[in-house]
Amino acid sequence: MRSTRSILEPKPPEELPGEGFRKRQIAHWLYRRGARDFDEMTDLPRALRRELAENWRISEFELIQAFPSQDGSVKYLFTLKDGKQTEAVYLPYKDRKTVCLSSQVGCPVGCTFCATGALGFGRNLTPWEILDQLLAIAHHQGIPPTEIRNVVLMGMGEPLLNLDAVSAAVRRMIDKNALGMSPRRITLSTVGIPKGIRRLAEEDLGVKLALSLHAPDDETRKKIIPTAKAYPVEEIMDAVAEYFQKTKRRVTFEYVMLKGINDAPRQAREVARLIKDRRIVAHVNLIPFNPWEGAPVEGTPKAGIRRFAEILENEGIPTTIRWSRGVDVGAACGQLALKETPPAPLRFAPNAPNR
Ligand code: SF4
Asked: pTM to 2 decimals?
């Protein structure tokens, strides 16, 4: 019977199939050159290629669709082997290429300002479905996977609710025999689950942490983030402080600006206090709300966002207003909602990988 085992699962090179240096060749094709078909591995003997094709699969997806934004970013919709779907985003900048990956199908958290949350929860992604989002995007973009040097786990899902899989995928990203990425260039974004943050510190992956704070007080947080009922903000901040103490990596605080909910000047001062009390080296990203159909909240007007940023800066907290990319194709923060499907599916683009 044909096996459905992912070739991304065995640790490279030693656990890969093949004898001796063939293992290294396979790892090179998979992770450095981004092969999507065993037949592309032309320096392997034909019999080995046939054996690989019979027993292993490279891609985790049945179908890939791409939605290019006018600003250069591309949203990808992946249909998985079981028919479920998830999304990821490619974000090219002048000096770097970034991908925003999903960790779950939908999301169990259900934040009121987030289109993904409104979808509900499908299932956890496997490590290889997480990793393959990066490989598939690189292939579609016609670049080797190693050209993507930045990963943000900020797509669909709460990564700390699928930490085993996220951790395995990240280990493969930083493995020098696989993608060889720097953990400093991988950011895991969480809505704040203290136990998960502490476990992440124990995992010792060295990745950067981003906390989706969105409000400095429990009363407001509970209105927009359902898990806030279980985890008070002070407890989350203590766990974040421990993560900072252990890793010494600057922590990012994400804050989506919602009109009349979390944008009062006193709330900006309270955000600064939470950070300064714990001596966390931090950066705050203020995110203008990206609207989606049926959203029950409104965004803060630009002037209000600037005023909020000014208060934080005056309190000594470095702050950036992060205007999202990909808004026109529903690829921006909080917009991933498995919605747009073009009339004809776009499989891997013809621009062949740079080999
Ligand atoms: S913001 Fe993040 S945690 Fe909240 S519902 Fe959306 S994907 Fe889930």
From this structure: 0.92
